[in-house]
Amino acid sequence: MNIKKTIFDLKDELGREEFSDIKNIDEIVFGEPYKVIVADYAVIKDLINNKPILESIEKSPYSWEVPIFRTREVLEPIGSFEVDIVDGKWGLAEVGGYMFPVDIEFSSNPEEISKFLEENQIENINSFFHICISELGTDFLYVNTDDNEYFIPLIYNVESSYGYKNRQILTRDELVEKVEEPIKRLEENKNLDIGSSPDTTNPNKINKYAIVLILSLSIFLIILLSNRKFKNI
Fold it and tell me: How many CB atoms lie within 10 A of CB 205?
């Protein structure tokens, strides 16, 4: 299976201008994959109950997100595709992406993230994870340091934000203060589906463009994943 051809063939069905504007298949370029932790209930429970969360994070399911760029005069981020377990094996799970292209590019660039953290005086880093909490319409860059824990929101559904801004640096206490009550209300209403992937099938002005594709594992993906070095900052 040729993933570039699949993307090119579907470009007009993704509901995203950046894709439909692709003129030929050679304009499609893939960036560096990054690991996305899909926060399960244990992570959220430990977060709001002020318990250590590293162990819960490490035990949570995850997928790989691969940025998609369009190249002309410059390299422009336009979306991503997701590599996840499909029918018991790694395969292409979703094309389009649920985050803004600039945040996809940022998430895949360790140098830019390191620069961002340094500029904001976040040092002595022990652990770093990209965490998806779809119930909050937000992914978070989680940074554990010698002195504190930080959450940096990457908002993809502005209607679901809880008083924080995109890429605003929040301490753990600051985040919990903003999301504890909404999460408890979701629990009480039985609307909390922690551990699910972002909803890419319910169109809105932010994430209307993703389309779920259940496809078999390709030789391309085997080569892609085996040749990449996945590591934390």
Answer: 8
